[in-house]
Amino acid sequence: MLQTAEDIRLLNEKINHSAGFVTRINDELSKVIVGQHGMIERLLIGLLSNGHVLLEGVPGLAKTLSIKSLAQAIHANFSRIQFTPDLLPADVVGTMIYNQAKNEFMVRKGPIFSNFILADEINRAPAKVQSALLEAMQERQVTIGDTTFKLDEPFLVLATQNPIEQEGTYPLPEAQVDRFMLKVVIDYPSKTEEQLIVRQNTLGLTTPIIFPVASTSEILTAKELVRQVYMDEKVENYILDIVFATRYPDKYNLPKLKPLISFGGSPRASINLALAAKAYAYLNKRGYVIPEDVRSICKDVLRHRIGLTYEAEAENVNVEMIINEILRVVNVP
């Protein structure tokens, strides 16, 4: 839909008025989390564009703390599910239980019935449990017995997985990983940040309280505005070129990548890259998407959607290198 300069100006004003809660959330989270601005930004992008987020990083990088704090900063319900090898699907979605007094079966809802779901160490649970969670993520509904329940909005699954400990884990199949909008790889804090973390945790100070500073209605209004953010056809084509280059690299002057990629991004990659770019523009209080928005969020959308061949692994080529090469070669509008 073609928008005039006046439409975009009015949208900019709406976004400036609406996006005040983002600053309030960031201020609240900074009370307990040092650094990790990229991770928090990605969590907000997932929240605003209705996409689930997979966080990967070694233990102790504040993954769980960030997600829990974000839920506290928004006036919303929060559930934490610790995934273990003996977990059952009923432990996640709920089950039917027999009520002796009433002589009937009743529904007992599981922890999935919340606004924010922290799926801790998702790769520790067997396939049945993972698929039960991922079905709820995709359909945004749960069936228990004969009854189907719609899940409340906003509904956001934030899953963590540990990349270093593979014993006793069940890696997520590619088709299931593809349902996550973003895969965020979290790195260690800088030396200055870690010094601050050490001070905060050794001075015996009381843990700061996170207050709810945003309502679910503000989030739902923001989600509507994110959808309205203007994306020019040139930027749309740029997104398609990036995704198509992962499938047919030889057509984009990248013949050396062809033997390294076993499969490229699915149509979900194109959809999610467009939505994430719009959310990124919203966070920067803009009513239109620029190519830099696409480039900024590209790795998080694509890194779990590109398959590597044995040849790539033999040559120590990782997905990040492939995405960097594609971004270097594909023409920027």
Question: Helix and strand succession?
Answer: HHHEHEHEEEHEEEHEHHHEHHEHH
| Total DSSP E strands | 11
Tell me the quaternary state. Answer: single chain
CATH C-level category of the largest domain:
Alpha Beta
Shape: globular
Q: Mind summarizing the main beta sheet?
A: 5 strands, parallel
Class computed from helices, strands and strand pairing = alpha/beta
Molecular structure report:
- The protein folds into 2 domains: 21-201 and 210-216, Rossmann fold, CATH 3.40.50.300; 230-329, Magnesium chelatase subunit I, C-Terminal domain (Helicase, Ruva Protein, domain 3), CATH 1.10.8.80.
- Strands 2-5-8-1-9 form a 5-stranded parallel sheet. Strands 3-4 form a two-stranded antiparallel sheet.
- The radius of gyration is 21 Å and the shape is globular.
- It has helices at 5-18, 20-29, 37-48, 63-73, 89-93, 127-139, 174-177, 191-202, 216-228, 233-247, 267-283, 291-302, 310-314, 319-329, and strands at 53-56, 78-82, 94-99, 104-109, 116-120, 141-144, 147-150, 156-161, 182-185, 261-263, 307-308.
- It has 14 helices and 11 strands.
- It is of the alpha/beta class and 333 residues long.
Task: Summarize the entry for a quick read.
With 333 residues, this protein is an alpha/beta fold. The chain has helices at 5-18, 20-29, 37-48, 63-73, 89-93, 127-139, 174-177, 191-202, 216-228, 233-247, 267-283, 291-302, 310-314, 319-329; strands spanning 53-56, 78-82, 94-99, 104-109, 116-120, 141-144, 147-150, 156-161, 182-185, 261-263, 307-308.
